[in-house]
Amino acid sequence: MTAATGVSAAAEKSTTAHVVWASALGTAIEWYDFLIYGTAAALVFNKLFFPSFDPFVGTLAAFSTYAVGFVARPIGGAIIGHYGDRLGRKTMLVATMIAMGLGTFLIGCLPTYSQIGVWAPILLIVLRFQGIGLGGEWSGAVVMVIEHAGNRRGFYGSLVQIGFPVGVAASTGIFGLMTKLPEADFLSWGWRVPFLISILLVGVGFIVRLKLAETPHFKEVVERKEVLAQPVLEVLRRDWRSFLLAIGITVSEVGLAYLLTVFTVVYATTKLGLSRQVILDAVVYAALVEFATLPLAGWLSDIFGRKALYLAGGVFSVALAFPLFWFLDTKEPALITLALVVTMTLTHALLFGPKAAFMPELFRTQVRYSGASLGANVAAALSGGFSPLIATALLAWAGSYWAVSVYIIALSIITIVATLMAPETAREALRS
User: Fold this and answer.
1) What is the DSSP letter of 380?
2) Which of 78, 111, 373, 378 has its CB surrounded by the most CB atoms within 10 Å?
3) Would you place residue 256 in the very low, low, confident or very high pLDDT band (cuts 50, 70, 90)?
4) pTM of structure
């Protein structure tokens, strides 16, 4: 009999609810910390930290520092995943929150280029390595949940995913409020507010996570004395196929996440000449809709399987790659909002909702934290952080959105192929 079966149904349900709540809250806070940088890179960092460049080149430079956080994520995924599989899920979830929160707060304190010259962008890049924290945050949160969730892993895991739209809505919303300030005030102190208040949010999440219980699956590994000395190396040596599949099924979803929430802001404000408020509002509304669509996608994946949802999301991503920009180019706020809502729902939500269960299910308990961390974060480094940078460069090269649409299609095809090659995990017990 396993540790999980020895718990009463009521106690198990209560424990699962607490784990889901704590994981979702912490993930929302950490996504907020990570995403406000993307919005700031699109709106203000090119002016304050790279002012000697042409505005477009300054935006590319700002997105380059944005990408640094994604380069840091696989490093964080390897380190935190290693200790998550050796010391436990809870311990590392608390550590990641501290790393993210402190880095975000310090960015809000940074002097600008006009104050300290070249040291400003250098320090910005150094602090952007807070991505190390997020490298182990998401994977730890979803592993914690699905190892408590029984047969409803898709649904419960998708509740953790709500942290992403919460982070998008909160980070974009607060920047929307700050942009209402006079331009001089916004550039002087308004942009710092979203970064500085993160320290309060992290304090709340830290307290909540301290009360979490370790997962029954990890406890069993400890009791059987099967904790591995080098779980990351074990992933690369024995679970390399699952690792490659994890990367493949993720590249489209993570690329879409940042193209839809970051690059669209640049495209709308620089290429189309729209006000910041129009596109920021549209991103917020699209993120709010995912409050419903992410759990729905997770629930459906428990019924129809992870692969069915992933294939649908991949096909819709291909189908909507061009129509998204057709609607953006109308410059009509209502149509822009509709385009982002529909695209986020039919592409990102269908991929991201089931991901919380699908990704960890590919790996056995001894390496689950490491495998999920490495798979998710290598994919994020390849397509997530560099997507706004690549899309901006493609837009400059082609002079039109068509090259960005082709890029979206290419990422989607990779995910479709990887999904077809992956096993169906929805109806199988977690690998021990």
Assistant:
1) I
2) 373
3) very high
4) 0.81
